[in-house]
Amino acid sequence: MKIYQDLLDKKAKLAVIGLGYVGLPIALEFAKKISVIGFDINQKRIDMMRNSIDPSKEVAAEEFKNRDIHFTNDIEVLKEARFFIVAVPTPVDKFNVPDLKPVLGASSTIGKVVKKGDYIVFESTVYPGCTEEDCLPVIENISGLALHKDFKLGYSPERINPGDKKNTLRSVIKIVSGSDAESLDEIAKTYELVVDAGVHRATTIKVAEAAKIVENTQRDLNIALMNELSMIFDKMGINTYDVLEAAGTKWNFLKFSPGLVGGHCIGVDPYYLTHKAEALGYDAKVISASRFINDNMARNVARKVIQHVLRNTPDVNNARVLVKGVTFKENVSDIRNSKIIDTVKEIQSFNISVDVEDPYAEAEEVKEEYGLNLVKVDGQDYDAVIIATPHDKYLLLTAQDLYAMTRPTGLIADLKGIFKNKISERAYWSL
Hints:
CATH superfamily of the largest domain: NAD(P)-binding Rossmann-like Domain
Number of strands: 13
Radius of gyration: 24 Å
Number of helices: 15
Shape: elongated
Distance between the termini: 55 Å
């Protein structure tokens, strides 16, 4: 049940299901060398991509040129493919329970189009076992086909880093796995078409799933330690970034920093692991504690700002706060699971007016997702300015710019410490 050569000879097509910040770059890279079907259920997104526009603002228009790709939301077109890559989101619900609806929906779609000899590879981040225990039965039940006898299965975790132009799909080693030796070999050779750094062949699908979730859980743990240290040092009157700068002179010190942990990877993936652990009867204490610390940092920021405003604002009833940066990380447009929103809501609960500004975020998306209106121009006389996301544009701000935005009694809350030792005429605080 070989597929690689047929893809290379364009006798077979590859389909990418889910064209977000992960799926679209993969689809376009493959389309340089083989025939690709880009499938997404969102018609508006399909229309944009047909016009060389990336809805996620990660891929430049020229990257669409001279690509053998057909964008569609038509399941009949999807039937033309023989190699399917699933790159749909895997979020958590409001109770932090894994929401498998997107990935199971994609599995259902594949079940309607998969044929004998086809390959299916999942890239969506899931807990170990999900591909074979949750997704595979859906595909088999709907298609009436059986794994190995009729089709092959694999898992290759995505390693796309939004906003990062250095560590790209081509330059980062890709983990691949397959349901048997033949599928592993064919899947590996297929991905080698688009990954210059090469591939790592995981021993099983579960190992590949676990590897991805461990990558982000490890970062979550380390950031949680930094966040806890920042709260301790704040009570001591010590600047955390001064401490990290000093400690970082040791050769084996791991350079992490405190911050709000949002987005759709680090702030989400550990919940998939703790969910699976709980199902197996194990209470993942360290991972859960890290999640608790990081999920509560946004409220800790809010409390610090609220305390300053209540203590230093002449007219508390007309207090105003400006938040600069609503995307989950710098220099991207993605607002999903942005933790600064928790800060905004907490401040608003004290009847303090909050303006939100961001040069990357789409005003319509922010309004729809969070019910907030973006301001286009910074105002004046704010009682606090929170610099939440270190966008490049914000790095160009001067102390005088920040003074102009605030009252003399105002606070500059600089979460990532980018203005450390630069603010002298206003109260200053960082994590």
